[in-house]
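Support request, please re-run this one:
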Amino acid sequence: MDATAAYRIASGTKFSSDNSARVAAHKFITKPKVAAMVQAAMDKRAKKVGFDADRVLEELAKIAFSDFADLFKEDGTLKEIQAIDPVLRKAVMNFEVVVKQGPKGVEPTTVLKVKLWDKLSALDKLGRHLKLFHDTKVEVSDHDGGPLVPGGSLSDLELARKIAFILSKPLKKKPTK
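Re-run finished. Output below.
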């Protein structure tokens, strides 16, 4: 899955730098015929393992919408693994059984640790897929619309004053082209 390494091996050419190998690999892999062959190989691999966009979204949804409380019985103890909903089990990242030895004559304590995959990351990925988030860029410019950069005709103090003035005003979104 590394175009540069694959190109080095396939071409048998020694390159003077990593950059020249990367450029040559990019030129090669962006050729329509080569890109189509790579895509066909990736599609074949995905089909072989039962991997597609719907499955990825389903797995992300299992993590994103899992409820940690469903791991426990009503008395607060952890359910047996077989009793946990299979959908929720897929949201479990790590399950650990720790036996802590107590002082002599005291029964060891068993501690069960369960860690779920990161819900916020899964929700973020699903939200981005659904285009729920709109990243905005904020540009700061002078009164003429030019960039506000140090090193111009302004002293550092004048520049700092301008920046403070600009930051004290409500931001206006610049229209996108």
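The chain has a mean pLDDT of 79. Helices lie at 3-11, 18-29, 32-48, 53-64, 86-89, 119-129, 156-168.
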